[in-house]
Each structure stands twice: as structure tokens, then as C-alpha cells.
Amino acid sequence: MTTTMPRTGSTPVVKRFPWGGLIVLATAVFLSVTAEMIPTGLLPEMSTSLGVSESQTGLLISVFAFAVVFTSVPLTFLFRRVPRHLLLMLVLVVIALSSLVGSLAPNFEVLVVARVVGGMAHGLFWGVVGAYSAHLVPREQIGRAVAITTGGGTLAFVLGVPLATAVGHAWGWRVPFFGIAVLALLGAVFIVLLLPRVDHRKHLEPSTDTRALRAARRRGPLDPTIPVVALICILVSVIMIGNYAFYTYIAPFMIGQMGVPEGQVGLLLLVYGAAGAIGVFAAGAVFGRRPTLGLVIALAATGVSVLLLAVFAANPVVAIGAFFVWGVAFGVIPTLLPTRLMHAASPEIRDTSSAFYSSSFNAGIGIGALVGSLFLDSLGLASLPWIYLIGLVVAGALLAVTPVLTRRARRV
Highest taxon of the source (predicted)? Predict the structure, then answer.
């Protein structure tokens, strides 16, 4: 696709849509998300190899997520003047090195340190990649560019995590970590060779008028949409806590409760990922203009599927069908929640809202894995879907309040 840009002369300038650069960014997103989620499919093997419990191994997800939450904003500010092209390349190198150390880790403690470093790089990466894709295109194509870039995250769940799980079952859990290290280094090379450079520094210093406007806003009343934005951030945290209290330990649940052979866990995760891709498509095609309705339906479908998993885990037909429905429904939720956020937030606080949303999302992942670990130790695998169901009920109640706060904000 091409975009015609105006020019002073008689011949217009034609700017091609930057497919190459966006695909490079999407590939980097794919590698980063896969690196984050590798342990979810390999908990039993990692637990046995490292001599720690499965609940303790699940905390590898928590430490990664908490590293993202606590360091992404400070690191993004610290490196704000570093050229984005160089920064993305260096971040992928750090992800590669942390994965390499993880693959060679002699004990659990070294692996935790490697995960913390990887989480710091992951947080900085997400602080840059969305804005980078927006810099590559005209204003009217920003949404499309960001969607292509973040599609790499969906592909990580559809392909990356299941493939890493299958490889780990075949050749040991260390091999996928090593593979991500090699691929991340190749990704850094692709960034150097194929990703167009952007100049972000012109946006760092606000104009005099912009500074004056910001000062006036600080002196004035708070933005009326802040309460609904805060509620949506709490909502996403609650959903992620419930989801990752269960999903972090999905491999042990499949083996212990569903009776799935260890070698077929990767195949079922591939089914879940494919279902999630269907959900992402449905979110955009069916519920793009009515995100609240889509979220209500997705939360209800998730609740029914998780309830079926809790009650009929030993029935393979019901359990696998419920697992597929869960994948479709959960593919809808992370796609529509940011849409709901952008609908609710006023234009003046959308950037800040997105930053808090990202932190809330990752905080939910980290807390969820921790909560799942505690309940796994105290009540066993069978308790985990019930924890998720409680989270879904709370999330439904919060979602019911958001239209009220939105209408109240619009009246102000």
C-alpha cells in the first residue's frame, strides 16, 4: 500500500507503507513476549531440573512481570535521549543475554536474576516499540501500524510458547531459552539492517505554548475521566491476577487434573493460541465499536469455560472444548480493554492512561502467578480455576460500573 503525501511542486511524493520496518518490530515483540512466557509450558521439567517446587518455579513469571512494572517508566525516562534505533537493538541484545544465562543457569537463584534482567529489558522495550511504529507512518495510519507491531505478541501465544514447550519437552527446558537467545541476537541484526531510523528527539522538548497549557492544567481541576481510567486499570489487574493464577500453572493442571500426556501439552497450548487468534479477530471485526458488550460476552464465556474445566477436568471432550473456548474468549479481553480505555479517557490523558494500563496489566500477571503459587501449595491444582472464577466475578462487577462513571465524566 502507498500513501500520497503533498509536495510544493506539481508531482506528489509517494510514501510506501513501511511493511518491512513494522514486520521487524513485530518480530521483536514476538521474541520478547515468548521470552517472558516460556516457563508456563515447562514448569514440571524446570521444577524437577532445578530442585524446587512447581509453585516456586511459577514465580519466575512473577519476578519478570514485577521487573517490568517497577523499572519500565524509570528506564524509559533514563534512556529518553538515546536514539530509538540503537535502544531497540541494545534491548534485544540484553534479552538475548538474559535468555542465554537462563539456559545455562546452574541453579534457581541464577535463573531468577536472569529473569529480572530480562524483565527490565522487556519493560524498556515496551516503552519504546509502540511509539517507534507510530513514528514510521503518517498520523492517519498510526492505529494500523501499532496493530501490526503488537500482533507479534499474539503470534507469541499462538506459535512461540507452544513451540518452545514442544522443543522443551523433546530436548530439555534449557534449549528453548538458548533458542530465544540466538533468535533475539538475529533480531538485533535485523533491526540494524532493516529498521528505518526515526528522530524522536524533536518531541522531547515541549514548545512554550505546550508548557503553558500543561501548567494551566496542573492549576485547574483534575481531568473528569480519571476515575473511569483508574477503574479500568483496576479491572485489567483483577482479570490478569485471576488468569495468571491459573494459566501460569496450566501445564501441571493439564498433566495432573486433565490427564494430558506430558508430550501433548505443547499441542494443547497451540490450540489455545490459535483460539486466542480467533478471539483477537472477533474483537476487531465484531466488537470494535461496542467494546463493553464484547467484554461482557467474553467475561461470561471465560467464566463458563473455566467452570467446566474446574468441574469436568477429567472428561477430555468437555475439558479440551472448554479450554478452546477459554482461548477464544481471552483473546477478546486484552484486545478490547485498551479500546475501552481509549473510549473512556479524554484525549489529554490518553498517553498517561496507556502507561498506567501497561503497568496494571503486568502487575496483574506478577501478582497472579504469586497468588497461584500460594494456593497451589495450600489447596492444590484443583483450586486454581476457582480462584480465576472469583476474579471474573469481581471483574464483572467492576465492568458494570464503568458506563456509569463514563457518563458522569461526560457531564462534567
Answer: Bacteria
Residue 102 in contact with residue 94, Cβ under 8 Å?
Answer: no
List beta partners, residue 178. none
Q: What is the pTM of this model?
A: 0.77
Strands 13-16 and 2-5: antiparallel
In contact, 306 and 388? CB cutoff 8 Å? yes
Angle, alpha carbons 362-75-27 (nearest 5°): 65
Cα gap 331→278, rounded to integer Å: 7
Is residue 223 pLDDT above 90, yes or no? no
CB 240 within 8 A of CB 365: yes
DSSP string of 185-232, one letter each residue: HHHHHHHHHHSPP---GGGTS--HHHHHHHHHHHHSPPPTTHHHHHHH
Task: Tell me the pLDDT tens digit for each residue of 65-88.
Answer: 899 888 877 887 788 788 888 999
Pairwise CA distance, residues 263 & 175, whole Å: 16
CA distance 360 to 69: 8
Asked if 211 and 336 count as a contact pair (C-beta separation under 8 A), the reply is: no
137: Cβ–Cβ under 8 A, 6 or more apart, which residues?
3, 17, 18, 144, 145
